[in-house]
């Protein structure tokens, strides 16, 4: 159902964050996640271990925008390609893959996403936030990126898989970077 009065980005409410990225090696970053009791699933481990997951020596700051698929004018949901294309048209950028662990380390007060919300197969979990980043490999068996979640009080940095046909729900949350001006 389409609502004529519904506001879309940039005229809708969003959550912005300033996140400092860089300064750690890959092993230091993983150790920092462990020190903060952040759990990583198998797909997250696979992303972190890949040679294309590169960490930056120099610290820099990114301004991120969290919004829903519906905020991008997809009231019935959309595929990853459609979401990324629309975000780009609206002046948003994909995040570096490296942002995932740094954002997880900064966003320690993420609300619980599990209570009372049953897990639905092949859907983003309730309360999760997917980080929109460049996809490393077209292989559907390789993780496409990271998402953040709090499950029963435990913070997670999780990798996810989704093929080109997967339709994200209008209420699914994504994080993009704002275009530098």
Helix content: 10-25%
β-strand percent reads: 25-35%
Domain count, please report it.
1
Q: Biggest sheet: strands, sense, closure? A: 8 strands, mixed
Work out the number of β strands. Answer: 10
Low-confidence stretches: none
Number of discrete helical segments: 4
Kindly report how far apart the N and C termini lie.
35 Å
Helix and strand string, N-terminal first?
EHEHEEHEHEEEEE
Structural class computed from helices and strand pairing: alpha+beta
The residue-averaged pLDDT reads: 92
For the CA atoms, what is the radius of gyration?
16 Å
Describe the secondary-structure layout.
Blueprint: E1 15-21, H1 26-35, E2 39-40, H2 42-49, E3 60-68, E4 78-79, H3 80-89, E5 92-93, H4 99-106, E6 129-131, E7 145-151, E8 154-160, E9 167-168, E10 173-178
Parallel strand pairs: 2-8, 6-10
Antiparallel strand pairs: 1-3, 3-10, 4-9, 5-10, 6-7, 7-8
List keywords for this structure.
181 residues, globular
Describe this protein's structure.
- This is Helicase.
- It comes from Lederbergia wuyishanensis.
- The protein has one domain (15-178).
- The strands form 2 sheets. Strands 1, 2, 3, 5, 6, 7, 8 and 10 form an 8-stranded mixed β-sheet that branches. It has a two-stranded antiparallel sheet with strand order 4-9.
- It has helices at 26-35, 42-49, 80-89, 99-106, and strands at 15-21, 39-40, 60-68, 78-79, 92-93, 129-131, 145-151, 154-160, 167-168, 173-178.
- Helix content is 20%, strand content 26%.
- It has 4 helices and 10 strands; from the N terminus they run E-H-E-H-E-E-H-E-H-E-E-E-E-E.
- It starts with 14 loop residues before the first strand and ends with a strand.
- It is an alpha+beta fold and 181 residues long.
């Amino acid at each position: 159902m389409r609502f004529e009065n519904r506001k879309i980005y940039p005229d809708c409410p969003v959550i912005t964050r300033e996140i400092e990225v860089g300064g750690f090696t890959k092993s230091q970053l993983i150790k920092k996640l462990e020190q903060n009791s952040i759990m990583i699933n198998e797909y997250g481990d696979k992303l972190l271990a890949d040679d294309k997951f590169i960490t930056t020596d120099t610290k820099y700051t990114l301004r991120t925008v969290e919004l829903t698929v519906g905020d991008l004018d997809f009231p019935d949901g959309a595929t990853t390609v459609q979401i990324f294309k629309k975000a780009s048209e609206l002046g948003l950028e994909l995040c570096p893959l490296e942002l995932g662990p740094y954002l997880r380390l900064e966003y320690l007060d993420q609300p619980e996403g599990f209570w009372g919300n049953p897990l639905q197969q092949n859907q983003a979990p309730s309360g999760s936030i997917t980080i929109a980043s460049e996809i490393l490999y077209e292989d559907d068996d390789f993780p496409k990126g990271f998402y953040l979640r709090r499950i029963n009080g435990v913070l997670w940095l999780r990798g996810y898989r989704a093929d080109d046909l997967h339709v994200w729900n209008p209420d699914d949350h994504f994080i993009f970077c704002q275009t530098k001006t």
